[in-house]
Amino acid sequence: MDTTPMADEFPTALVVDFGAQYAQLIARRVREAHVYSEIVPHTITAAEVRERRPAALILSGGPKSVHVEGAPRLDPDIYDLGIPTLGICYGAQLIPQQLGGEVARGGAGEYGRTALTVTGGSDNGLLSDQPTTQTVWMSHFDGIVRVPEGFVATATTEGAPVAAFEAPERRIWGVQYHPEVSHTPYGQQVLRHFLHHLAEIPPTWTMTSIIEQQVAAIRAQVGDARVICALSGGVDSAVAAALVHKAVGPQLTCVFVDTGLLRQGEGEQVVETFQRHQRIELIHVRAADRYFERLAGVTDPEDKRKIVGELFIRIFEESAGGLDDARFLVQGTLYPDVIESGGGEGAATIKSHHNVGGLPEDMTFELVEPLRALFKDEVRRVGEELGLPEEIVWRQPFPGPGLAVRIIGEVTPDKVAMLQHADAIVRDELRKAGLEREIWQSFAVLPDIRSVGVMGDERTYAHPIIIRAVTSEDAMTADWARLPYDVMETMSSRIINEVDGINRVAYDITSKPPGTIEWE
Question: Among residues 178, 193, 353, 354, which one is catalytic?
């Protein structure tokens, strides 16, 4: 089973995944409590848990009923290992289901904000020092009606006779509600109390400790060898490069392939940041002409992606060819990438990813993945700690093919320039309005249509710009951002007045699902 070096250096809370997106959110909240966490499948055995030697276990929520045939279960021998264990929602129901309690089927269920009453518990119980009455976030159909022998119910709601329980001697606790969501005001306090006091895990997982651990790990892996990094201009590759540079200094050479498809001013900013500010050896390849030549006449979005990715590979190979002694390749793999690839299966191969474009299988580099254990928000904080400028660290997610997939139809230098200008206005106005950090992604799209307009006394026949802005936590789902009308009005006015060839602005109010964040 795949692990990261972090698990060897820090006390670890294992989050057992029973489905949906709960496990990732719980893992992030655990790390916010300065405790390292990793996600494991519910099929993990007691022997595997014992081998991992975790400091705590958290059983996540899940989308199924514990009564459904084929519903996920946990190896019951895990409960006898004496590891502090917290069950949440489905995870809380599974504990009495497997240990001799009772979970009733059906009923009215509870969904959303729910009033909870704390009814008891030990002096240092899970809900000690919390208000007797409080609001929690519920999402359940079945309900716990009887706890196993040796357990005590410690909270109740109108629809859940056992909304929390504990068995301190067995080091097991459970809550029917979701403490990991922001709608449960005292939820993070529940997690902190479980981790720090009941499981007695010290809060040592900090950005400083992460950097120190990774610097040591990189030095041990690389030794005196040369390392290369494919910079994309995005957050992940930038932070990975800065972290490796802190570890091995001049042994690192970065290759930045400037495709001409980045946002306005980003190519220059990457060079300024890494060559002049970070003092990293940088090979800057100006390749815009080659990209426009290959993209001429191409309209299919998948063809565009393949062309951009393949050309990147060829240019990277050409540029790295002079570095004959390079043995290691830096890649900005994040922890969600590891999870989504099956918990690390195949993670030793170079995958097609936005920060490297998909490098060929016959390249013989060994991977250096210093961000492999981190979530996106942690990567940003590491970048800040390393001294990277805010413009790099807080850069929004950006597609690998760049503006090629935000231009519907053929990609030309004129269209890229037009879109860069409009896109810069969108981001500038959000920054002025103080909304930049609230938006997951905001950008302009140039569709392959024209419409009639009137500018001054003249009739125009020009392109529209579509503004896209979404809020999200993980990009798995996204909602269209409710931007203030005055901000949208300013965006529209500036784009039409300042960008030649544009006479109309529209705003995309499609969520994901059913739409996607990007247009192509």
Answer: 178
